[in-house]
């Protein structure tokens, strides 16, 4: 109404038609920004059913869209909306398809709200979009294939929603994409091999979906990949060998799937690997000794698999090691030499978690166990056929809060000094 009033007023004043149109457009743009943008934002507002913080109250016709809360225009003269940030506002309701008309949008931050309904495929019209964060909402429906038309997109965050359907193969043509986060949704189907085309991709999160099939071999060609997180799915097959050649890889996580194969054949070139999570799969073979050469490693969890053989002796070389979990495998120890890994681990001054329970670790538990780092919080070594005794010096491990040595053949009394471990909350004997 406001705009129409101004326009009418201006029309009455001008004599030259062309000049008049120019003045009107300028005045309108100055006051309100582009009409299309304003309509689109008002359509978004009208879809919202709950706005507990009242952020949208400022979205009225008396001020320029560029001054609306959560709305920014990069170029104050052009008055086109370039970013929308309404995160953490408790907004509920669907996202209006009119959002696709905000053609200058570069970033959309709508995370941590209660938005529901589909992700409008009109997002595909946003040719300037670089960042899309719709995470932590209640969005359902499928990931629109049209999203792939946003050729400038660098970051897509759709995690923690209720999205269903497949990961569209079309996403493989978003050449600038660096980060794709789809974790904690209900996505099905396979990991599309077309993603191998995303040569800029550095992090990808598929954690906790219902994805099946193999990890596509082609993805091993993503040389810039730093994070691959696909735990809690139904993936099967082997880890493509090329993954272990990716020199930037920091995190490789594929726990709780149906993967199999051996790691022993792998030539580790992973000089930046920090986290390797492969627990709850069907891996077999030995733990490769070359693993002890990945000095960047700080978390290793290969528990609940069928690894066999000895635990490699050189673990002490892993100066950054914090978490070492090989619980529930078929690892073996018979003679003193097989326990060298434990002496060696006393070198890891940051170790917090050591678990090798539920294996076939026989022979004598070395008394050097008391010389593990005082940072140790969990020592889970129960359910092994080993003998020996728990020395009184176990009290050195002052930060221990969980100690499990259950059903081992440890001789002698449980040292009374255990009572000095003031953080101990869990004791399995
Ligand atoms: C507003 O933007 C749209 C889309 O970019 C364009 O088609 C339209 O001409 C613009 N309107 C004005 C008044 O500038
Ligand atoms: C429009 O919003 C601004 C900023 O919140 C406020 O100062 C103004 O009173 C509002 N105008 C109307 C007509 O609601
Ligand atoms: C904006 O988008 C809506 C829905 O996608 C459409 O119906 C409308 O015609 C578009 N154009 C303008 C100028 O609002
Ligand atoms: C999705 O993209 C196709 C072209 O690839 C286009 O025809 C269709 O209109 C788009 N849908 C929307 C809602 O933008
Ligand atoms: C997207 O939102 C999530 C959840 O709040 C947040 O952790 C993440 O940093 C955001 N990403 C960007 C690029 O804004
Ligand atoms: C997603 O999966 C969970 C677990 O199976 C289920 O409880 C939930 O209803 C599913 N949601 C949708 C939208 O399918
Ligand atoms: C990926 O690239 C190959 C060729 O490099 C091409 O044939 C294929 O169509 C591309 N896939 C997608 C989804 O862009
Ligand atoms: C790993 O890289 C080396 C060269 O650095 C190459 O010879 C080898 O074939 C690669 N292995 C795989 C499985 O791609
Ligand atoms: C560790 O790396 C060094 C140097 O590359 C090599 O000589 C040694 O054999 C490696 N150790 C293991 C256990 O692979
Ligand atoms: C312990 O760490 C030092 C470096 O701090 C290293 O030289 C030594 O080889 C390590 N010992 C073992 C048993 O790995
Ligand atoms: C523990 O370390 C100390 C100091 O290095 C050493 O004197 C002692 O013999 C070690 N104890 C065991 C049981 O290895």
UniProtKB/TrEMBL annotation:
This is Non-specific serine/threonine protein kinase protein. The keyword Transferase applies. The lineage of its organism: Eukaryota, Viridiplantae, Streptophyta, Embryophyta, Tracheophyta. Its EC number is 2.7.11.1. It is an enzyme of class 2 (transferase). It comes from the Eukaryota. Keywords: Kinase, Serine/threonine-protein kinase, Transferase. It comes from Dioscorea alata (Purple yam).
């Amino acid at each position: 109404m406001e705009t129409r009033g101004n326009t009418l007023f201006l029309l009455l004043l001008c004599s030259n038609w062309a000049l008049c149109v120019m003045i009107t457009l300028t005045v309108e743009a100055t006051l309100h920004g582009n009409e299309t943008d304003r309509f689109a934002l008002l359509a978004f507002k009208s879809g919202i059913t709950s706005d507990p913080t009242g952020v949208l109250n400022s979205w009225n016709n008396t001020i320029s869209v560029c001054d609306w809360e959560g709305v920014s225009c990069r170029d104050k003269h052009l008055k086109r909306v370039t970013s929308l940030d309404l995160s953490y506002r408790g907004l509920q309701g669907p996202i209006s398809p009119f959002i696709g008309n905000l053609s200058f949008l570069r970033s959309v931050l709508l995370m941590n709200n209660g938005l529901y309904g589909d992700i409008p495929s009109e997002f595909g019209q946003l040719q300037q979009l670089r960042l899309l964060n719709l995470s932590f909402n209640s969005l359902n429906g499928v990931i629109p294939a049209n999203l792939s038309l946003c050729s400038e997109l660098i970051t897509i965050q759709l995690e923690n929603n209720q999205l269903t359907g497949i990961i569209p193969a079309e996403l493989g043509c978003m050449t600038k994409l660096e980060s794709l986060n789809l974790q904690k949704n209900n996505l099905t189907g396979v990991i599309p091999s077309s993603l191998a085309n995303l040569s800029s991709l550095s992090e990808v999160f598929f954690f906790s979906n219902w994805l099946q099939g193999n990890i596509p071999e082609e993805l091993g060609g993503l040389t810039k990949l730093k994070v691959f997180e696909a735990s809690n799915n139904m993936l099967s097959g082997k880890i493509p060998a090329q993954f272990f050649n990716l020199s930037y890889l920091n995190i490789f996580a594929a726990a709780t799937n149906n993967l199999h194969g051996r790691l022993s054949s792998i030539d580790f070139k992973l000089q930046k690997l920090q986290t390797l999570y492969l627990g709850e799969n069907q891996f077999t073979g030995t733990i490769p000794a070359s693993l002890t050469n990945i000095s960047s490693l700080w978390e290793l969890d290969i528990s609940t698999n069928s690894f066999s053989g000895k635990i490699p002796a050189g673990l002490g070389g892993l100066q950054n090691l914090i978490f070492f979990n090989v619980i529930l495998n078929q690892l073996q120890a018979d003679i003193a030499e097989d326990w060298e890994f434990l002496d060696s681990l006393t070198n890891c001054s940051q170790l917090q978690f050591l678990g090798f329970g539920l294996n076939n670790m026989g022979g004598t538990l070395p008394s050097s166990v008391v010389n593990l780092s005082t940072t140790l919080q969990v020592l889970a070594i129960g359910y092994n056929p080993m003998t020996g005794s728990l020395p009184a010096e176990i009290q050195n491990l002052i930060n221990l809060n969980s100690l499990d040595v259950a059903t081992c053949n440890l001789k002698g009394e449980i040292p009374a000094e255990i009572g000095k471990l003031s953080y101990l909350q869990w004791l399995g004997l």
